[in-house]
Each structure stands twice: as C-alpha cells, then as structure tokens.
Specification:
alpha+beta, 6-stranded mixed β-sheet, globular, 162 residues, 3 helices, 9 strands, 19% helix
C-alpha cells in the first residue's frame, strides 16, 4: 500500500467552500484562454549538479520563516495536498494572536488511515504570504511539511535528480 498525504476537498472544510472551489474551477475553464501567466522557462542542466555528491537520495528540506520564526527542517512534499506544522513545532513557536479553526475533514496518508487534524491556522509564511496550515498531532522527523499549495504559490519546481 502506497500512501500520500491528502484531504478530501482542495479548498476548505465546509460544503460552501467546496462549492466555491468548484465554481472557481468552472470559471477558470471558461477564461483559461484569456489568462496565460508569463512565467519563466524552468530547466535543469549539468551545471545544477555542481556541488552535489552523487549518488544521492536526499529529501528536499528547507528553512522557512513562519510568523517571524525561522523554522528549520521542513520537508518539501510534492505529493501532499496540504501544508502541515506539527503540534510540537507550534508549541515551541508559542504563536499568539492567531486562532485555530476547528476542522472535520480528515487527512489521509500518515498511517494509511484517516486522521483529523488538531486545527487549521492561517500564518504569515515568507514575504508576508498568508498561508493555511494544518496543525497535526503526529510528530515526524520534520517540523513541518510544505505541500502542493505552497509549491504552486511560490511557483517552485523540485528536481529530485538535481
């Protein structure tokens, strides 16, 4: 059995949020031809391998500034549909002035079973981008996981080979 971290809806916990997400998808399909982002071409070449000791199979791990804290050892997960900070990380951050919203949509993938997160919080992440972050109760080797929502927002591309 192969698991990845995911949740049911990609845009919220309520029926209203799911309907709004569906409407945005429908509107995007209609206007897709009119909106083409002018992103740079991304490519990887031999010069990107300089300084890499091969063969390697290292995880992509970064440090991110979240709510004015430099949080190290955050795993970049192309397969995760959510961003997660684990309870132990948030406890160390002593985040004040932010409210945790209750959430009932479970996450799947940690153990192969559904797990209901401890809550959802919106925190400033790198350069004042506000980000929805799930509060997970299962500590791992990492302090958090940045998934597809942030990879998309930052227009980041990870090359496991490079």
């Amino acid at each position: 059995m192969i698991h990845m971290i995911s949740r049911g809806a990609t845009d919220g916990d309520s029926v209203r949020a799911r309907k709004a997400h569906r409407k945005r998808l429908d509107n995007f399909e209609i206007s897709r031809g009119a909106y083409l982002p002018q992103d740079p071409v991304i490519s990887f070449g031999p010069e990107d391998l300089q300084g890499i000791i091969a063969p390697h199979n290292d995880a992509l791990v970064v440090t991110a500034t979240i709510a004015d804290y430099d949080v190290e050892v955050i795993f970049i997960d192309n397969g995760s549909s959510v961003n997660i900070l684990f309870k132990s990380t948030l406890d160390q951050m002593k985040v004040e002035g932010f409210e945790f919203d209750p959430i009932s949509t479970p996450l799947y993938g940690f153990t192969g079973h559904d797990i209901v997160p401890l809550g959802l919080i919106t925190l400033p992440l790198a350069s004042n981008k506000n980000d929805d972050i799930y509060r997970g109760g299962y500590p791992l080797t990492y302090n958090g996981i940045l998934g597809r929502p942030d990879l998309k927002d930052f227009r980041a591309v990870a090359s496991t080979y490079h």
